Amino acid sequence: MELEAEILERINRGILLRTGAYLTDDHFVLSSHRHASEYVEKALVTTEPAFTEGLGEIIAKHFAKSQVDVVLTTGYGASILGYCVARAHPSRPRFIYATKRKRKEGGSEVTLRREFHRLFAQGAKVLLVEDILTTGETVKALIKLVESLGGQVVGIGTVWRRSHKIKFKYPLFTLVDREFPTYSPKECPMCQKGIPINKEYGTGDEERSQGTSLRE
Ligand SMILES: [Zn+2]
Description:
Layout: H1 3-19, E1 22-23, E2 28-29, E3 35-36, E4 39-40, H2 49-62, E5 70-74, H3 76-88, E6 94-102, E7 108-111, H4 114-117, E8 125-133, H5 137-148, E9 152-161, E10 172-176, H6 189-192, H7 203-215
Parallel strand pairs: 5-6, 5-8, 8-9, 9-10
Antiparallel strand pairs: 1-4, 2-3, 6-7
Bound molecules: zinc ion.
């Protein structure tokens, strides 16, 4: 990575640290059951409007030279960010969101409300925005949707690409491009040092929210 890009990424990671979405120097159990000393809490990324606007501006600036007619997202967090990207882009694009749902046969599919179809003219230039890229499946579904409607994907803007294996056929711009190390419980250095597992985040979090819903 170039030095400038590395510095920028460190600044962006600093913003996420301040939102509380990025946690470090701790001990987490991920949903994959692997352990890590870092964690990204997707739900917290867009909780501070001033920071979300700032992140949206950086993404908009990166794609400022491209004509963008529509910014398209799906999901709550990505939509808040996508709105900020659209607001900051010089083409004054429309902002629309697709609806995501889990398929019975596995994976998820995205659909666009009929009311949005007229905003999505043939050949429309579309910028996709996602908050955290974990598998890239959601973005791939959005690309398919845009192509099926006759639009052209200009690029993809995201806050964090969590795995370097995630690649698309269109230009990707990510504020943070960090694949942090994860360990099997047997080889986990935090376990070996006896650092207690953070129960508030990671799989501890899932157990807690299940408990909460049972009590309600
Ligand atoms: Zn551990």
